[in-house]
Amino acid sequence: xxxxxxxxxxxxxxxxxxxxxxxxxxxxxxxxxxxxxxxxxxxxxxxxxxxxxxxxxxxxxxxxxxxxxxxxxxxxxxxxxxxxxxxxxxxxxxxxxxxxxxxxxxxxxxxxxxxxxxxxxxxxxxxxxxxxxxxxxxxxxxxxxxxxxxxxxxxxxxxxxxxxxxxxxxxxxxxxxxxxxxxxxxxxxxxxxxxxxxxxxxxxxxxxxxxxxxxxxxxxxxxxxxxxxxxxxxxxxxxxxxxxxxxxxxxxxxxxxxxxxxxxxxxxxxxxxxxxxxxxxxxxxxxxxxxxxxxxxxxxxxxxxxxxxxxxxxxxxxxxxxxxxxxxxxxxxxxxxxxxxxxxxxxxxxxxxxxxxxxxxxxxxxxxxxxxxxxxxxxxxxxxxxxxxxxxxxxx
Length: 396
Hints:
By secondary structure, the protein is an alpha+beta fold. The protein is built from twelve helices and ten strands. It folds into three domains: about 10-125, Immunoglobulins (Immunoglobulin-like, Sandwich), CATH 2.60.40; about 125-285, Tetratricopeptide repeat domain (Serine Threonine Protein Phosphatase 5, Tetratricopeptide repeat, Alpha Horseshoe); about 300-395, Serine Threonine Protein Phosphatase 5, Tetratricopeptide repeat (Alpha Horseshoe), CATH 1.25.40.
């Protein structure tokens, strides 16, 4: 009558337990409890433990005297059982993978465990069932190992990100330990883009730490081989993150754009302004809704590199993307004022077209502060009236 194990261990489907109210056992009844474990050593998380005096070949023809639900953890318990000899059957999804004989006396509270890892049970399985069981065990072991690895990597990510926040600007602390931890992370799972991105952040952070020490000593950062090495490796890590995302079946566009943005920022720290500008342009293509930020970064990088025409052009792109941000107007004004001419007849400085307008729009958005005071002095020296009546348009 008893059906052999039919794949229960490969499909542990979650189901809500059905709680069956049974009468409290008294002196004339018995109770049982225990656990149900499948051949892979895992708890069966649904089904019932059924009691019968005489099982039939067809499960539907069997008359059961008691039924107790199997809980999520594989446990079951039942009471109010009349004394006698029983067959206890496991019934899961219409199958009976295991059964045991049990004799219950009045007042008993017996432990009856269904452990399908027992040698006699495994011996009774067919060759195909044994093969399936071993394959399942191997897959389960691999899944458990992978889950542990992912859990460890997630913990590493959280710790590193917290440390980067703590040691980022203006602290510029030593994050060499984070670099080591993230190198181990990418070695453990080299196909995960977020790990490469965070690895790049640690390398950039360590480069900033070394570069800050150079600045404090009034030395050029580009002359620090160790700082440049960290920046070079950071750029490689950011590009690796972007490449992995681009090659993914389900790419994370925001993450890929962030990788290119970080690439641009790090290239700028190396003094490679044109390469940095190209990286920011890549970010814009991927995530045009954040074009204002990417173009703003490009404008700042080019301005700091004294590439004024490129800075003004990038600032215009940033303004077109979002006219409510003050910094692009400031960069545009500063880039254009440097191209002013002098009129010897009037003894006046003649700023190029668009310069004064950029300054005036900047002041309306940022009327106070160090930059604003500077711009007001420039406008006053040009004989221009400071105008704060401009109202920025809506973001495109």
